[in-house]
């Protein structure tokens, strides 16, 4: 009987049962800086693979829904789907601001965007924080890849209205930002999580940025940001 040769040792299997975070921390605790760097680089080299695979899949799914059911049916479907995953953020923001102020909320947002596999810059003035994503790790990345161009391109909205920031050509994928970042938080929490740039709320061509404004005092958010998505600013 032929003896089967195992691929991994017991130690190697244990190592492959740990995530990158655990491996990096263990290497640092051992004082092995080179090993920690090795795992950090492996993490960086592979972290975008599954992220980007799902990012490519979602606009195809949205395009199929849009094609089969039409834009009138697509809009409420997208709104309801976004509501299911964005609602917990209302409470998260409220708790963070109450406990640590806007600094705590912005640190959380920065950490989330670090995981989003994009490129961004954070700036601040007296009334707000400005996050410029160029590109964001999903919608902007898809525009940069030109997945909406050509005869086989994914779908954009055919019309314009409150569900498109009032502008033409909004990619279906970017449509979730209208509901998740602005409308639903405005409706249920009284204020947006953040607002998109009024003139250029989404990237229209490769290389365009997507800019978000986080107002320190929600009452100072100009009414036009509510109006651009069909909402009224609370009095």
- Number-wise, the strands total 4
User: Could you report the average pLDDT, rounded to the nearest whole number?
Assistant: 94
Largest sheet: 4 strands, antiparallel
SSE order, one letter for each helix or strand: HHHHHEEHHEEH
Strand content: 5-15%
Structural class: alpha+beta
Q: Which percent bin holds the helix content?
A: 40-55%
How far the N terminus sits from the C terminus, by CA atoms, comes to: 83 Å
What is the gyration radius calculated from CA atoms? 21 Å
| Overall spatial form | globular
Q: Count every helix, treating DSSP H or I runs of 4 or more residues as helices.
A: 8
Low-confidence stretches: none
Tell me briefly what this model is.
With 235 residues, the protein is of the alpha+beta class. The chain contains 8 helices and 4 strands; from the N terminus they run H-H-H-H-H-E-E-H-H-E-E-H. The chain has a domain at 70-227.
């Amino acid at each position: 009987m032929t003896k089967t040769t195992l691929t991994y040792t017991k130690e190697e299997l244990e190592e492959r049962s740990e995530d990158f975070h655990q491996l990096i921390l263990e290497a640092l605790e051992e004082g092995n800086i080179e090993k920690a760097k090795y795992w950090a680089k492996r993490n960086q080299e592979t972290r975008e693979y599954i992220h980007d695979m799902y990012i490519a899949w979602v606009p195809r799914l949205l395009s199929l829904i849009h094609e089969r059911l039409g834009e009138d049916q697509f809009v409420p479907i997208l709104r309801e789907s976004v509501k299911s995953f964005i609602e917990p953020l209302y409470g998260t923001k409220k708790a963070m601001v109450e406990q640590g102020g806007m600094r705590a909320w912005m640190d959380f947002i920065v950490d989330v965007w670090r995981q989003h596999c994009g490129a961004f810059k954070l700036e601040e003035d007296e009334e707000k924080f400005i996050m410029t994503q160029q590109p964001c790790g999903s919608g902007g990345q898809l525009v940069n890849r030109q997945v909406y161009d050509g005869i086989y391109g994914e779908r954009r909205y055919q019309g314009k209205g409150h569900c498109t920031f009032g502008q033409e050509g909004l990619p279906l994928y970017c449509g979730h930002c209208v509901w998740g970042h602005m409308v639903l938080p405005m409706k249920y929490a009284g204020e947006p999580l953040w607002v998109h740039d009024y003139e250029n709320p989404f990237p229209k061509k490769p290389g365009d940025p997507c800019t978000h404004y986080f107002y320190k005092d929600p009452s100072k958010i100009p009414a036009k940001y509510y109006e651009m998505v069909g909402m009224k600013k609370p009095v």
